[in-house]
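Wed. Picked up where I left off yesterday with DRTGG domain-containing protein. The coffee machine is broken again, so keeping this brief.
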Amino acid sequence: MKLSELLKIVEGEIVVNSGVNPEEIEIEKVAASDLMSDVLALSEPGSLLVTGLATPQCVRTAGVVGIPVVLIVRNRDIMPETKAAAEMSGVVLCVTKKGMYEVCGILYNTGLKPVYAQ
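Structure written out below (tokens, as returned):
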């Protein structure tokens, strides 16, 4: 699913684009966590990270494991430091007003696959 389509479905918006066209990003798998240690251990490059954390650490963690897009739920305020981390990491940073449970359900019902531990 294209990122632009995904954002329409979850009523999300891009906060930091990092110079990437949302039409060019294809999302097939989703990881959802507020524990960055789980993201480091279980995520796959190219997946979407859904999180309630709005800190620079979540963006840096995504960049380390090759996650191109972070979607922050619950309409959190995004700190300037988090935006700067997204720009430096090349991660697209998005927000939605919806909660994590709802977002995960919506994305699962669209056919996106979960990221599993191997």
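Quick read: The helical segments are 3-9, 36-42, 56-65, 80-89, 100-109.
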